[in-house]
Amino acid sequence: MKVTFLELYNEEVTDLLAQEDSSRSSSEDKQKKHVSLMEDGKGCVVLRGLEEEVVYSANDIYALLERGSSKRRTADTLLNKSLLTLGRVINALVEHSSHIPYMDSELTRLLRDSLGRKTETCIIATISPSAHSLEETLSTLDYAYRAKNIKNKPEANQKLSKPVLLIYLYLELERMKEGLHKLLSNVYHQMS
What we know:
It contains six helices and seven strands. The chain has helices at about 25-30, 60-70, 80-95, 105-110, 135-145, 160-190, and strands at about 1-5, 5-10, 10-15, 35, 35-40, 45-50, 55. A hairpin with a 5-residue loop joins strand 5 and strand 6.
């Protein structure tokens, strides 16, 4: 399985798994590799220059999440164009509008297939029990409530070519052999 990890901050997409570039001047620039969003001609968004890392276990994924999370930005943003546009897209989809403003922000471009198109989607609404965060919590719950009314028509991914499928099956077989070897080794040591 391949994993990517990106950040969308102030309409700028950054690769959080990219290796640091020592030729850049500031320390923040060294940690950031900007990624371009492009159309592939078939109506899909492609992230040009995004690093993909192959993982074989949950621990591999956790390590990548930890590495990428250390590069995330954490400053507050007062007016978030992406979230405002996401709200407009959700409203347009729920109301069956003839125009859906996907192209108005990088976030909605990225989420286009997940919003009323061809992928199965799960939304997780993160809220706070604090009275101080009441307005933000209500807004989040409103987003989630409206988004759950969006109907998607999931489609299976494209068929893999024979060589790609063979490589995938070979790697999966090797992973299973390694797991079986570890299991048998543990059983042997426990019996002796």
